[in-house]
Amino acid sequence: MQSDTWIYRMVVGALGLAVLIAIIGAIILAIAGKPIPELLTALGSAAVGALAGLLAPSPAGKG
Description:
The chain has a domain at 18-53. It contains two helices and no strands. It has helices at residues 5-31, 38-55.
């Protein structure tokens, strides 16, 4: 995936946007006094995990 930088950037951007939307949505719901749905928390957590997996250095190059 490192050879196709545009797709990589688009995926990272989309995941980052998903994280921001989840955070902003949770803040808005908390301010409004409404409960935060578990689905919103799960989507935000999954996007953070996917970003970490994409941005972490690959161990294949070592050793």
